[in-house]
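Researcher: Before we compare anything, I want clean individual predictions. No alignment, no superposition, just each chain on its own. First chain goes here; please echo the sequence and then give the structure tokens.
Model: Echoing the first chain and its structure:
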Amino acid sequence: MNAIRLTLSIAPAPGEDEFALDDAVRRLRRELLDTDVDGVERLRGDGAAPGSKGAVEILQGVLAVALTADAGLVQSMVELVTAFAQRGPGRRVEVRCGDRELVIDGASRQDVRRVREAFLELVSADDERPDER
């Protein structure tokens, strides 16, 4: 099976400040690491002003998840991320895999099922292509 890399971009819930968002992202990272994913890291960006020397900052609310393109594992991850989004009313999580994107926000059970099915199709399509990542 191929390995895939997902990028999770977490938008704060209404009224959630940067500290609360940071705490929520840390909890989500720990929860993801408790699953069978290969790794989870907070993405870093170049926060330096032009001409300054090398400050690097953590990108607010962005995680990179490495995992095997396994339907069961992906389903568990999508359910975990959906539960995370539902814990913060109004919170939104964008899940990217290459040029594909799924948005999870305030989802109902029917929405969760739809997102999970779409994501599993995405992984199946990626699993059929040669590993380009």
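Researcher: Okay. Second chain, same rules.
Model: Second chain and its structure:
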Amino acid sequence: MANGVREPTIDPTNRTLSPSATSAPIRRTGKQFFSRKVVLVTCLMICSVCVGLTGMATGTVSAVALMTVAVGFLMLAAPAYWTLIQDAAPKEYVGSAGGLMHGLANISGIVGPTITGVIVAASTYAGAFVLAGGLGVIGAVVIWAGVRQHHYR
């Protein structure tokens, strides 16, 4: 414990990193759902903007740097998705909600490359990156405006 701040440790009972990036804002706001949503939306927004800017990058180094930042923020947001599902879904449906989320992600993994190929054949890779970044920004706005906490017990 340095300066009164607890170091992240691994909890042997559930093997999660605690406190994580999603729990730091909880200590400041006292509102778990809001702070997790802020982390998720912020990371998704930064990731999406970086992906969109990758399509406009003029050099290889800048394109790789933007994609590296995008993937980093995407990985930072991943734990927030699961905690958001656990907060928003009824306890008995958390697994089903997670399965639905993974199913949709797998479908997008099939459809995405096909649509990217069509876009690249019609124009350039820049159009595909800008479209992906724009869709990510729209997704972040939908999460911010549409996801509400329900108090199921």
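Researcher: What stands out in the second chain?
Model: The longest strand covers residues 9-10. Additionally, Residues 14-19 have pLDDT under 50 and may be disordered.
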